[in-house]
Amino acid sequence: MAQHAVQPSRMDLRVPQEVRDIIDRAASMEGRTRTDFVIAAALERAEQVIERRKVIRLTMQDQDLLVRSLLEDRAEEVPQYVEDIAREYAGRVVSE
Questions:
Q1: What is the pTM (predicted TM-score) of this model?
Q2: Is 30 a residue whose pLDDT tops 90?
Q3: How many angstroms separate the CA atoms of 8 and 4, rounded?
Q4: In this structure, are residues 23 and 33 in contact, taking their beta carbons and an 8 Å threshold?
């Protein structure tokens, strides 16, 4: 399998000198370049934002159907996406 080099793209940022100094100090403490430090920090924050925004939005009817499905062993005509949501929910919930 051939490996392809990832083409970097450029981002130019203008930040106050005080911010740059803080970033440089933190990057130095971690033994990273400024670029590596900023990329890692920005990527981590971006992933957090995206994960937090992955909210399951259900209509009231779908919520009722989901609750009935969870309380009963079966429900009539459960849409596939409701089954998927229930499976995902069950996988994320920790019971004590």
A1: 0.54
A2: yes
A3: 12
A4: no
